[in-house]
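Weekly structure sync, notes
Attendees: PL (lead), two postdocs, one rotation student
Agenda item 3: pending single-chain targets
PL asked that the sequence for the first pending target be pasted directly into the notes so everyone works from the same version. It is reproduced below exactly as submitted, 235 residues in total.
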Amino acid sequence: MISMRAMILSAILIITAISVGEELVPRKLWEQQLSGEALGLVKDAIWAFLLAPVVLALHRFVILGEITRVYTLPIGEPAFRIFFGWLFALKVFIGLPFDLLGALQALNWSLWASTLAFAVALVAVILVSLRLSVLLPALAVEAPGARPSRALADTNGEALRILALFLLALLPWLAADIGGVFLLGPSAQVTGTPLAMIFLVMAGVLQTITLSLTTVIASHAFMALAAQANRASGL
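Predicted structure, written out during the meeting:
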């Protein structure tokens, strides 16, 4: 990963800058349903567009050993545009349960009903996301037949194993994120304060670590399933 330090540093700066930009938008716009949803989509699109080169480079590094030393946005390449499109779609898809919860609360659903609907949606999204976890690695290396239906077929019966890998890798960093929030205290949530800036940088680092680990795990899952398929076909 040392050889990819420019890409990792770029990810930290991008994630931190997006968080800073989010803080500059008036809170009342985020709290209104329509404007909040529109801003959320714009934020997800910017996130996916700017981080697509990083995620793509990490996939290619793990799977192919290819080192990308400089951050670039290859907008003219069709493969990049497809990768960005799917990264954006998956980012939006993962956030759907939380959007649903906000919509149900706005419609004055009871607490138990909205919580139940949120839980069902969350389980469904997690399951589908796990089944699609090998799609981005396949797109990154331009593997033949890289499409959602193929990803769903390849991960059939493997969702729990992939979930276990993600949990083992990510739980310590999620705990560190929560611990940092408690350590910095409520003043870290006040925009413009020194603690708030420290929190944004810390969150940027932790989110980059989480993104990198997620990418690496998905890459290894893709390689393991590809090797399994090759053995089954006698190749």
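Discussion points:
- The radius of gyration is 19 Å.
- The longest helix spans residues 194-232.
Action: rotation student to compare against the earlier draft before next sync.
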